[in-house]
Specification:
Keywords: Metal-binding, Oxidoreductase, Zinc. With 354 residues, this protein is α/β, with parallel strands linked by helices. The protein has eleven helices and 17 strands.
């Protein structure tokens, strides 16, 4: 099926500190495809890290954008449950109807398109949501129960990764969970973990981020004013935390996590990557004798996206505080320049009326 829009303007990272807007062709709609008019797309840490040159783990040039939201314009003939006019958010492109998926070459989670995929127009791409339009399989598109501001709906994917990670450590009432870092992902981890009934303590050294976390009603340890490890132990009566979520990619954060943990059966969730790669920072024998459980987490599964869509769409998790700035699509370079400044949260690129 021919899309009613055949071309779109799309942003690419062409090189270090080089973002551009180009025109690309949209593919024809397969039976399960959906054409969406993008309203906004948030810039992820991994994307502005590539733009700044801090990260070099993906080939350039490349399309990007996986924290987007928009309005459905057209659906393929086999699409059910999504129709024109619906307000939706996107995830990593995932198409179980493709030849690749049927051959079994997919991962356990949505987001299986490989980095070496090359578009017809010559630009490398895995994600393509920082554009005015996108065509994706209905399996990677989620309909919100209510229309919320598009930049907030763009938290669908990051919140889904949080839901996925916390399922591994399974926080519950009576436990103490420490989240190291009050950046975007740290705050999201704390807000979701708090819904379990567990006590959640956030540690942070940035005064601005300490203030944001406190305004959100979170219990915060200001690591710039005290020894965060000692303070967590003091607040837990010397026992330590049942679980620690590391939402900062630093060796010091890893060291603090293990020092904050209770003596036996503590859990550590490595949520954040760091560049250069941080070290674990603990004697392996302590892991062995302490019967610790260590978890790595990345991306999310279908059920996590569904839950994330519910939490956002029903207003259960409020992310409005985590949108630092909004920039028009044509100011994509200015958006990246703002996003790389320390101390901020998400920068939204606006393609249309929210």
């Amino acid at each position: 099926m021919k899309p009613i829009v055949t071309e779109t303007r799309a942003a690419i990272i062409a090189g270090v500190r080089d973002a551009r807007i180009v025109t690309r062709r949209l593919r024809d709609l397969a039976p399960h495809d959906v054409l969406v008019k993008i309203l906004s797309c948030n810039l992820c840490t991994s994307e502005f890290g590539l733009w700044s040159g801090k990260r070099t783990n993906r080939p350039l040039p490349m399309t990007f954008g996986h924290e987007w939201a928009g309005e459905v314009l057209q659906v393929g003939e086999a699409v059910r449950g999504i129709e024109p006019g619906d307000f939706v958010g996107g995830s990593h492109e995932y198409d179980p109807y493709s030849d690749e998926a049927r051959a079994g070459r997919t991962s356990e989670a949505p987001g299986v398109k490989s980095y070496d995929t090359q578009w017809d127009d010559g630009y490398f791409g895995r994600y393509e949501g920082c554009a005015e339009h996108v065509v994706q399989s209905q399996e990677s598109i989620y309909k919100f129960a209510h229309r919320i501001p598009a930049p907030e709906a763009g938290f669908l994917e990051p919140l889904a990764t949080v839901v996925n990670g916390l399922r591994k450590i399974d926080p519950h009432e009576g436990e103490t969970i420490v989240v190291i870092g009050a950046g975007t992902m740290g705050v999201l981890n704390a807000l979701v973990a708090a819904r379990s009934g567990a006590r959640v303590i956030v540690t942070e050294v940035s005064p601005e981020k300490v203030g944001v976390a406190e305004r959100l009603g979170l219990e915060v340890v200001d690591g710039s004013a005290c020894d965060a490890v000692e303070e967590v132990r003091r607040r837990t009566g010397g026992r330590g935390a049942d679980s620690v979520v590391i939402a900062v990619g630093l060796t010091l954060a890893d060291q603090q996590a293990f020092a904050m943990l209770k003596k036996f059966h503590g859990k550590v969730l490595f949520f954040a990557a760091g560049y250069p790669a941080p070290e674990v920072g603990v004697d392996v024998n302590k892991i062995h004798y302490g019967k610790m459980e260590l978890y790595g987490t990345l991306m999310a599964d279908y059920v996590d996206f569904k839950e994330s869509c519910r939490l956002l769409g029903e207003g259960i998790i409020d992310v409005s505080t985590l949108v630092s700035a909004r920039y028009p699509f044509d100011d994509i370079t200015a958006a990246f320049e703002h996003a790389v400044q320390p101390g901020g949260y998400r920068t939204a690129v606006i393609m249309g009326k929210e």
